[in-house]
Amino acid sequence: MKHVSLLTLALVLSVWLLPASVRAQSQETFEAEAAARRATLTGFTRARSSMTLVAEESGRVEKVMADVGDTLGQDGLFAQLDTTFIRLDLRENRAEQERLKSDFEYYRKEMNRYKQLVKSKNAAQSTLDSNVRAHQGALQQLRGKQIEERVLMERMKRFSLIGPAGWKVVTRYIEPGEWVTKGEKVAELGNYEALLVPYALTGAEFRALKEQGENITLRLTDLNIPVQARIERVSPGFDPQSRKINVDLQISQGDFEFRGGLRTELVLELPDPGGAVLVPATALVKAYEEYFLMTPEGERVRVMLLGSGRNNLRRVSSPEVHAGDRFMVKP
Q1: Could you list the residue ranges forming a coiled coil in this record (predicted)?
Q2: What rounded mean pLDDT belongs to the chain?
Q3: With CB atoms counted within 10 Å of each terminal CB, which end of the chain scores lower, N or C?
Q4: Using alpha carbons only, what angle is made at residue 275 by residues 270 and 276, rounded to the nearest 5 degrees?
């Protein structure tokens, strides 16, 4: 009996004689961290903006300056319609203006002459009134022709089918020699100076995306390169069928050809729906094919090992373990 007491005393003394750093390490605790699951979403690039180019005048296609895939120049000219008849209308209008200017000048002189004659009582007032009326009529006709000339000049501009400078031709509907009517589609254009990638996100996915701020990274899977993107616009509504939020990400820079149809991947870290947590590998105690965590009070908590995580962490789950709970690092 005396021998057992001496042995117990020796064990107690050996523990107290351990270095202070070792005793502190044995009491070190950690806080369970909520585990995240990685969601990979796929999207495809498309033009930043697109438009349908429509003919504003009817006419025969004289020439087409751009084909599918071409970029419109600084003037934005896509095609030119024949302007023969509009130019003839302009010549007729200007000739009529010259005639009316001559009439206007004639009636002005006649009006001034009859004013003098009426003043000297050598002509009737009615004759002066007729000349004043003719003078005003010529003036109004001349103004009408001037307005008509501006209309014809504006129509002349619309015989040139012009799109935004720098945009690319996606689809071409016309060929030289064809007749196009007013309102007919002639081309589909797209702005590929920047790319949009549309995604439909759940509420949790959208919150995880916003947490990334301006540093959103997409991977172009076909080219195997990462690119930076930012949130361009977010729909205030939602898709009634999928009940997801429509979000467009914009890619403005990248060392690759900007075009539509490039597959992209967006990786989001989402909270684990099962409530799993991350713990250090050293915190797990294995006994009888089961795993346990040790609380600072010395109580064992059984957990289920789900797998490995980053930095030598382990994913575990238990109804009694929640994110923020404290356990021993090395029980």
Answers
A1: none
A2: 85
A3: N
A4: 85
